[in-house]
Design goal:
The structure holds two protein chains of two kinds. By secondary structure, chain A is of the alpha+beta class. Chain A contains six helices and eight strands; from the N terminus they run H-H-H-H-H-H-E-E-E-E-E-E-E-E. By secondary structure, chain B is mostly helical. Chain B folds into two domains: 87 residues, Rna Polymerase Sigma Factor, Chain: A (Orthogonal Bundle), CATH 1.10.1740; 80 residues, Orthogonal Bundle (Arc Repressor Mutant, subunit A). Chain B contains nine helices and no strands. In chain B, helix 1 packs across helix 2, helix 6 packs across helix 9 and helix 7 crosses helix 9. The chains are: A alpha+beta, B mainly alpha. At the A-B interface, helix 1, helix 3 and helix 4 of A face helix 2, helix 3, helix 4 and helix 9 of B.
């Protein structure tokens, strides 16, 4: 009889942040589907946090507050909307762009950069974007997941960028679904990187404007004809 | 302008709504804790500062995903800070660097010598209840916990450091945390 809580003994070490990559992946996978173990993990997080919070107090470096507020300000004006830390894009050739703009630029390449940077340039919050955007929230299966779908109606191209994605076993991938009136059309498959970030370039069908909703589910590697696994992200335009 | 100070949860909601002033207030309230927590792991001011900045940017990005029923804001911040600092520490080690940590001079105590490598580190913690709880641990549990908590070493690395079997180290750390959880009143000891 298999143990319903196989990672229970690893939870204290998980809260200390000392598990190796494989064990961490195992624990996160199990926690995504087990509320009891999530509660247990939370109790150990409290212990670790209590130890960490009682660290000897150090004086804050001068100017750190200003630096942080400047960094937040830069992110606020470059993004159309708050996104998860989508791009610590160390490999991005366009470091001035942040967040969704960098993700999109990296995916689409220089040829489209002017087109995209014009659409995604700084502007006051509340200015209507010329792109269709959908924010996807994590479900109970992936409470820390967060994603964004950005679609350009001019050429039916789009991009999905998501973070906080649980690691997957080797025989599984995430699959994006475009949803309308009960119909679910695949937008493609992708795998998360080690930091839980995943992205997908999509070409949407010509009638994509009818697809108002999006979902991401766990499917066999290569994808499924229809959603079969747990849903991790959902949202609509 | 409300006369009462906003709660941490209210600040998080405001940050999720794009309120940068709320970030400033949160920093003033918790910045020292976040920075000190990072510094405890990696005793380098520049690295700790970068971790601190990273934490508050992450708060800006993810304030919308914070759920109050899953724990206090202060706990959330301490976890993020500690985990980020451990990531930085590990990547510096992986690149062959010798990052400065608080424990460096204490690790030379040989296993079984009776010396308690981390004692002065634990005694420097600000929370008296934490100090007492740690002091009440059996020495071998405390020794393994020291390497885990202050160095972010994996079970295998701790086992190698101490010359002990892997299973023994895992059990000691787990038992230490269970005892601390009970002593700190987070839950009845089972």
């Amino acid at each position: 009889m298999s143990d319903p809580h196989p990672v229970r003994d690893l939870l204290p070490a998980f809260s200390l942040g000392i598990l190796d990559e494989e064990e961490t992946r195992e624990v996160k996978e199990h926690l995504a589907g087990c509320a009891d173990c999530r509660a247990e993990a939370a109790s150990f997080h409290e212990v670790t946090a209590r130890l960490a919070s009682s660290a000897p107090a150090r004086d804050l470096p001068a100017g750190l507050e200003a630096r942080i507020l400047r960094a937040v300000g830069a992110r606020a004006s470059a993004d159309l909307f708050p996104v998860s830390a989508v791009a610590r894009q160390r490999r991005s050739p366009w470091p001035a762009l942040t967040g969704i703009a960098a993700a999109v630029a990296v995916l689409l390449g220089a040829g489209n950069l002017l087109q995209w940077s014009g659409a995604l340039g700084p502007g006051a919050r509340g200015e209507s974007p010329r792109l269709d955007t959908a924010v996807l929230a994590g479900t109970a299966a992936a409470p820390d997941a967060y994603g964004t779908v950005v679609l350009d109606p001019r050429d039916n191209k789009g991009v999905l960028a998501a973070t906080g994605l649980p690691a997957l076993p080797r025989d599984r991938q995430y699959q994006l679904w475009l949803i309308r009136d009960g119909e679910r059309r695949s937008g493609g498959v992708f795998s998360p990187d080690a930091e839980g970030y995943g992205s997908l370039l999509l070409t949407v069908p010509a009638d994509f404007r009818d697809f108002r909703s999006f979902g991401v589910s766990v499917e066999p590697r290569g994808g499924s004809p229809a959603p079969s696994g747990p849903r991790v992200l959902a949202g609509k335009l | 302008m409300s006369p009462a100070d906003p709660t941490d949860e209210q600040l998080m909601q405001r940050i999720a709504g794009g309120d940068r002033e709320a970030v400033r207030l949160l920093y003033q309230r918790h910045g020292r804790r976040v920075y000190s927590c990072a510094f405890q792991v990696i005793s380098d001011p520049a690295a700790a500062e970068e971790v601190c900045q990273d934490v508050f940017l992450r708060v800006w990005d993810r304030a919308g995903t914070y759920q109050p029923d899953r724990g206090k804001v202060a706990t959330w911040l301490a976890r993020i800070s500690r985990n980020r600092a451990i990531d930085v520490l590990r990547s510096l080690r992986a690149r062959g660097g010798m990052p400065t940590t608080a424990v460096d001079e204490t690790l030379s105590a040989p296993a079984g010598s009776g010396a308690d490598p981390g004692e002065h580190l634990w005694q420097s913690l600000r929370d008296e209840r934490v100090r007492e709880a740690v002091a009440s641990l059996p020495p071998d549990q405390r020794g393994s916990l020291t390497l885990a908590f202050f160095q972010g070493y994996t079970h295998q690395q701790i086992a190698d450091q101490l010359g002990e079997p892997l299973g023994t180290v895992k059990t000691r750390i787990r038992d230490a945390m269970i005892k601390l959880r009970a002593r700190l009143g987070e839950r009845e000891e089972t």
